[in-house]
Amino acid sequence: MYAITGITGNVGGAAARALLKAGKKVRGVVRNKAKAANWEKAGVELVVADMNNVKSLTEAFSGCEAVFVLVPPNFDPLPEFPEARAIAATLKSALQAARPKRVVYLSTIGAQANQSNLLTQHTIIEEAVRTVAMPLAIVRPAWFMENCSLDVSPARERGVIQSFLQPLDKPVPMVATTDIGNTVARLLQEQWSGRRIIELDGPDRVTPNEIAATFARVLGKPVRAELVPHESWEALFKSQGMKNPTPRIRMLAGFNEGWIDFEGGSVEHLRGSMTLQDVIGDLVARAV
Known about the structure:
Rossmann fold
């Protein structure tokens, strides 16, 4: 049995599909069974658990060959990241109690950065799960290509996409969520000992201008990228309901200034095969 958290999302869903295709038994760890009913119909065993509840997580992970851990994103954390610290403690306790044979944790590019930012939540959780006794693989993917889903409507309707990634000609590591899920599924089925860190990139780095050009090709109309001025970010994010936008602002600055990037060195580095054209073509087709 392979336990998958986040099965209703892009990455978890891709991992589950790959495992099912390989003939493996899959357990979907969900917060609401009704929202995952389609997975139950596909033969997935659904169990309800919460990332802040040790007992439910332990039960969900027990008896599993391997476990994939994907923590729900928190774009507006409290100062000092108490939410991530609580999840880190819960995960560590649940994994130690359940003792699956292998664990794959979805972290992020830049988790090794020293500067505090939104991705520091993964740094905190990485530090906790690194201490578990079973073999552990930490996957650090690049910026998700699927973040471009927010650009579909403005590209189609106004021929403009707004970019927080700056300057517009700066290449940024990006990868498709399908490639992440497929990589996770493959790792779950592998045998290893100790701890691994796997950085996952796409075929090529991508600039905001290239994102706009790709939308133009897919839509068959001119599309250009437009900067969102840095000085407007705090007011903009607060107007959208954020109470503590500083971590998000620091994360974007990290990508733009270059201190959020892959660690490199002896860390494993893999590349996905899906291109930006593949992903944007799919996003546009599904948005019709």
